[in-house]
């Protein structure tokens, strides 16, 4: 492999990793507070991508309005999801909550299928992202560079909110011990809604960038990225935001480089993440940066 | 030093917190020993280390001449140490009788495929288990509730069912974690009688945690006191009641001594 | 006084009732086999296969309280193993055009019954291999590992062309699965799993479901019992996979996606998680309702104009049903209750004594 191709693959891996990271953050935040795998989280990628498409094509909005609009709307759908599918089950057995999450995921996918149809739609990628530039003789699509940069911006904003604001402090408290936080007089329901809003918005941003990178939008486009982002979150130690980012990058880079170095393994690419997951759970069930779990008796 | 049951310098650390520090005790067969101390002193943690729920940071649990430190919980139970839980942990959606029958499972002789094919030998074993389990319910005055769901019992009955379930594993050493918690004085008195009775009938050795001083002092032959993970006293009920360190631990530092 | 089990009369009565019910089932099957339409026979076959699948899936999810999301993996393994064994070496040589089938599958051929058992055994072996990472974790993690295993098997099905023929799949299988086979397996599965659940082993599984910590303290080894449930479930899922393969006669990786698991989940949730009776009822409803609901996806001719079929509509309905049940009627149809003759007779006011 030439160094040029290697660098191309490296940038590819980094931008794929940033997308996983963006989506993984949402999983990790929701898990931190509700101890729930939000199975429908991946489908928010699809919701955001379609919303952006319709904003651009139907309402002929410019992309710099459509994309934020799609992100905001998806954030609200995240809150709605919690209200409808999870909130009524706060005191129910965990298995019910998970089943509800799976149901919500299938509902979103199949509603999209019914309303929009299964034929993949192209994504109206703004021209400024499609440009190809040359850095040190390596030809790279600018999108590949923008994606990690945008991720960085979102991440900084998120970390600021979580670690430097009062709301963020409440969020961190709730993910340590939700009951005590409630007793301290904090409106936990508001915190949970906010968590869904933030996690879903990040997933939406990820979804739009995903659709620009792989411009084929269909009702099931969120399933595989969603699963992989979840694995990234587990890899980093679930509940840990930085861990989710690290896990996302590790997984994205790992996948791309695996295929780059061993092209004959390309068809196994989608299994790679799960094999990693199984290995992690075998040897370090709490992930790379997670804290050990103990049984309380 | 005996060979029956001995804890050697048990230490349990959770992150930076040392919940139990250098805890040792030796218990003779047939003894009834109490473990007392303020909330959060580390008493339940000691039980968790004995029964395998926690692996001590250091130290050893010796049982009938064997080092059982860090064995899986179910293997420790199979070796004859049973426990009850401070916050009741029944199989709430199963019947009272089934709750007790679960305890017989670790000694079952039938193989699973015999059960699946409905072989008569498994049927006979089931019937025997059912009868013996019913016997334990009678012993703890729960027989009339055999077919009720465990979750529907009154609080005192649930506590007794916990004991019945532990007894049904046929232990030699029984650990009771606050068996009288939440009981009224009348129930507590009856419980004390019950504990004496089961000890005699089954030849048990009992190690129990309890906050109700009247209960502990009236029942136990020897008492150990824990405070902030450290053992501060050991002796007969009389000795403990007059021990200044114990009084200090329970009442706090006297203001102007 | 000692505790009395069921007295002899009642247990004898129950035995006769069971035999009578089996004879009745046999009679019904005979009549349909002789006089039923192709459509009716297909529904009955599907019903039996789904009963087998749902009852064995419920053993893990309902009785042990785990959220296992990978039964589709075991169904796939059973289906491929069984199909590869019933195809003749000639047929296999002709189907595997991209890459030849590996030895020993290329030369082996076995009767249908043996192939079903082999499918079950192969599924059990895979279940055993995956069990170590699976049972290191619980709850959501277990759900995602088992789901991941299903995905891995799907990827392998597409990639390992020398075993599975890749995306082309296996075609032209003999339609061995008839009403006798499918219902025979279903009845056997229900009987065996009911026996297991009502035994000391089943009690241990339920104890783990109710409170794993307490179960351990009472001497129950969680790993052994969860493994037992997982392996038994995988075995019957594998056998059912073999039945499915020889019912549809064409199998390919797209047949066994997570959709299949989702359908099974709906069945056991609607029937009542933790009730074998519920799983049977759920499966029967699903096999019948699933066919009946096909109308919503096919074009409707209203004489004057035609409403085009809406693909995905059935899945929307199923997802809504699942969510409504879990949100508003969590216990499903049966809760954790089981059908029993005692119950029926006391309902009818006919209790012996
Ligand atoms: N699994 C655990 N993880 C972390 N800390 C624990 C754990 N179990 C107990 N502790 C801590 O150890 C201390 C002793 O607890 P415990 O043994 O339950 O006290 P007691 O039974 O005497 O009231 C407490 O501060 C408690 O918070
Ligand atoms: Mg305690």
TrEMBL record, chain A:
Its taxonomic path starts at:
Bacteria, Pseudomonadati, Thermodesulfobacteriota, Syntrophobacteria, Syntrophobacterales
Pfam families the record matches: BPD_transp_2 (PF02653)
Task: Give the subcellular location.
Answer: Cell membrane
The reply on keyword Lipid metabolism is no
The species is Desulfacinum infernum DSM 9756
Q: What is this protein called?
A: Amino acid/amide ABC transporter membrane protein 1, HAAT family
Name any Gene Ontology BP term. D-alanine transmembrane transport
UniProt keyword list = Amino-acid transport, Cell inner membrane, Cell membrane, Membrane, Transmembrane, Transmembrane helix, Transport
Any one Gene Ontology cellular component term annotated for this protein: plasma membrane
At the top level, the lineage of the source is Bacteria
UniProtKB/TrEMBL annotation, chain B:
Q: Which InterPro entries match?
A: AAA+_ATPase, ABC_AA/LPS_Transport, ABC_transporter-like_ATP-bd, ABC_transporter-like_CS, BCA_ABC_TP_C, P-loop_NTPase
Q: Which residues form a coiled coil?
A: none
The answer to whether keyword Acyltransferase applies is no
Any one GO MF term held by the record is: ATP hydrolysis activity
May I have one GO cellular component term? Answer: plasma membrane
What keywords are annotated for this sequence in UniProt? ATP-binding, Nucleotide-binding, Transport
Top-level taxon of origin: Bacteria
Q: Where is the ABC transporter domain?
A: 5-253
Task: Give the PROSITE patterns listed for this entry.
Answer: ABC_TRANSPORTER_1, ABC_TRANSPORTER_2
SUPFAM superfamilies xref list: P-loop containing nucleoside triphosphate hydrolases
The Gene Ontology biological process annotation of the record reads: D-alanine transmembrane transport; L-alanine transport; L-isoleucine import across plasma membrane; L-valine import across plasma membrane
Q: What is this protein called?
A: Amino acid/amide ABC transporter ATP-binding protein 1, HAAT family
This protein's species is Desulfacinum infernum DSM 9756
Lineage of origin: Bacteria, Pseudomonadati, Thermodesulfobacteriota, Syntrophobacteria, Syntrophobacterales
Automatic annotation (TrEMBL), chain C:
Which branch of life, at top level? Bacteria
PANTHER family in the record: HIGH-AFFINITY BRANCHED-CHAIN AMINO ACID TRANSPORT PROTEIN BRAE (PTHR30482:SF10), HIGH-AFFINITY BRANCHED-CHAIN AMINO ACID TRANSPORT SYSTEM PERMEASE (PTHR30482)
Q: Which UniProt keywords apply?
A: Cell membrane, Membrane, Transmembrane, Transmembrane helix
Q: Does the keyword Secreted apply?
A: no
| Source organism (scientific name) | Desulfacinum infernum DSM 9756
Instruction: Tell me the membrane topology, using the record's own terms.
Output: Multi-pass membrane protein
- The membrane-spanning stretches of this chain are 13-31, 43-60, 66-86, 107-135, 141-157, 178-197, 226-248, 255-288, 308-329
Q: Give the CC-aspect GO terms.
A: plasma membrane
Signal peptide boundaries: none
Is Membrane found in the keyword set? yes
Q: InterPro entries attached here?
A: ABC_transp_permease, LivM-like
Which CDD domains does this one have? TM_PBP1_LivM_like
GO molecular-function term, one example from the UniProt record: branched-chain amino acid transmembrane transporter activity
Q: What is its main location?
A: membrane
From the Swiss-Prot or TrEMBL record, give the protein name: Amino acid/amide ABC transporter membrane protein 2, HAAT family (TC 3.A.1.4.-)
Q: Where in the cell is it found?
A: Cell membrane
């Amino acid at each position: 492999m030439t160094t040029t191709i290697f660098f191309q693959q490296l940038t590819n891996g980094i931008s794929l990793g940033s997308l996983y990271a963006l989506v993984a953050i949402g999983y990790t935040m929701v898990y931190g507070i509700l101890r729930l795998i939000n199975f429908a989280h991946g489908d928010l990628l699809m919701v955001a991508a379609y919303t952006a498409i319709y904003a651009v094509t139907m309402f002929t909005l410019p992309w710099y309005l459509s994309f934020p609009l799609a992100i905001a709307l998806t954030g609200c759908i995240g809150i709605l999801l919690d209200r409808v599918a999870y909130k009524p089950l706060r005191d129910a057995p965990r298995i019910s909550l998970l089943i509800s999450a799976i149901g919500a995921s299938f509902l979103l996918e199949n509603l999209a299928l019914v309303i929009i149809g299964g034929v993949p739609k192209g994504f109206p990628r703004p021209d400024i992202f499609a440009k190809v530039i040359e850095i040190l003789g390596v030809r790279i699509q600018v999108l590949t560079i923008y994606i990690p940069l945008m991720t960085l911006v979102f991440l900084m904003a998120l970390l600021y909110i979580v670690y430097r604001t009062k709301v963020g402090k409440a969020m961190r408290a709730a993910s340590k011990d939700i009951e005590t936080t409630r007793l301290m007089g904090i409106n936990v329901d508001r915190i949970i809604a906010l968590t869904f809003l933030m996690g879903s918005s990040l997933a939406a941003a990820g979804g739009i960038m995903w659709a620009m990178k792989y411009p084929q939008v269909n009702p099931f486009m969120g399933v595989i990225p969603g699963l992989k982002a979840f694995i990234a979150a587990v890899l980093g130690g679930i509940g840990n935001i930085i861990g989710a980012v690290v896990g996302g990058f590790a997984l994205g880079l790992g996948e791309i480089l695996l295929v780059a170095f061993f092209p004959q393994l390309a068809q196994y690419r989608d299994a790679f993440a799960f094999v990693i997951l199984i290995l992690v759970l075998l040897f370090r069930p709490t992930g790379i940066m997670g804290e050990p779990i103990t049984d309380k008796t | 030093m005996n060979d029956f049951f001995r804890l050697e310098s048990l230490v349990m650390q959770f992150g930076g917190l040392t919940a139990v520090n250098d805890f040792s005790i030796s218990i003779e067969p047939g003894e009834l020993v109490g473990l007392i101390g303020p909330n959060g002193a580390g008493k339940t943690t000691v039980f968790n280390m004995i029964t395998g729920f926690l692996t001590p940071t250091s130290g050893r649990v010796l049982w009938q001449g064997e080092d059982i430190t860090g064995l899986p919980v179910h293997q420790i139970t199979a070796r004859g140490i049973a426990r009850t839980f401070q916050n009741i942990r029944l199989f709430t959606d199963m019947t009272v009788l089934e709750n007790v029958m679960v305890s017989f499972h670790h000694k079952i002789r039938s193989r699973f495929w015999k059960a699946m094919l409905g072989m008569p030998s498994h049927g006979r074993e089931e019937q025997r288990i059912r009868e013996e389990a019913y016997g334990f319910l009678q012993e703890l005055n729960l027989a009339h509730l055999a077919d009720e769901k465990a979750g529907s019992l009154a609080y005192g009955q649930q506590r007794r069912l916990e004991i019945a379930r532990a007894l049904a594993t046929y232990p030699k050493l029984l650990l009771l974690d606050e068996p009288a918690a939440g009981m009224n004085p009348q129930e507590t008195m009856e419980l004390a009688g019950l504990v004496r009775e089961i000890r005699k009938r089954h030849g048990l050795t009992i190690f129990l945690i309890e906050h109700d001083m009247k209960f502990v002092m009236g029942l136990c032959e020897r008492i150990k006191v824990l405070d902030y993970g450290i053992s501060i006293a050991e002796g007969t009920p009389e000795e403990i009641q007059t021990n200044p360190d114990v009084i200090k631990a329970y009442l706090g530092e006297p203001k102007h001594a | 006084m000692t505790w009395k089990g069921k007295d002899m009369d009642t247990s004898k009565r129950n035995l006769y009732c069971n035999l009578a019910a089996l004879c009745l089932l046999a009679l019904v099957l005979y009549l349909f086999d002789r006089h039923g339409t192709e459509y009716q026979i297909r529904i009955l076959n599907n019903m039996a296969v789904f009963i087998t699948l749902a009852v064995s899936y419920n053993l893990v999810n309902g009785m042990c309280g785990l959220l296992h999301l990978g039964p589709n993996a075991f169904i796939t393994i059973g289906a491929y193993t069984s199909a590869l064994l019933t195809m003749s070496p000639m047929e296999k040589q002709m189907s595997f055009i991209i890459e030849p089938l590996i030895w020993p599958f290329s030369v082996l051929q076995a009767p249908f019954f043996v192939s079903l058992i082999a499918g079950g055994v192969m599924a059990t072996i895979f279940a055993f291999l995956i069990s170590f990472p699976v049972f290191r974790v619980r709850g959501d993690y277990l759900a995602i590992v088992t789901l991941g295993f299903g995905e891995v098997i799907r990827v392998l099905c597409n990639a390992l062309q020398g075993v599975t023929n890749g995306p082309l799949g296996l075609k032209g299988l003999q339609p061995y699965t008839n009403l006798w086979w499918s219902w025979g397996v279903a009845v056997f599965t229900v009987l065996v799993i009911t026996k297991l659940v009502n035994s000391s082993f089943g009690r241990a599984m339920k104890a783990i479901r109710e409170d794993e910590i307490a179960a351990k303290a009472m001497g129950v080894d969680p790993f052994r019992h969860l493994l037992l449930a997982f392996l038994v479930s995988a075995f019957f899922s594998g056998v059912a996979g073999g039945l499915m393969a020889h019912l549809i006669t064409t199998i390919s990786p797209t047949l066994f996606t997570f959709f299949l698991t989702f359908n099974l989940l709906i069945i056991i949730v609607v029937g009542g998680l933790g009730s074998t009776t519920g799983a049977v009822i759920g499966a029967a409803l699903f096999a019948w309702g699933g066919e009946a609901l096909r109308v919503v996806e096919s074009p409707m001719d209203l004489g004057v104009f035609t409403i085009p079929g809406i693909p995905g509509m059935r899945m929307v309905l199923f997802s809504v049903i699942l969510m409504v049940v879990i949100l508003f009627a969590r216990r499903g149809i049966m809760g954790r209750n089981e059908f029993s003759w005692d119950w029926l007779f006391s309902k009818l006011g006919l209790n012996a004594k």
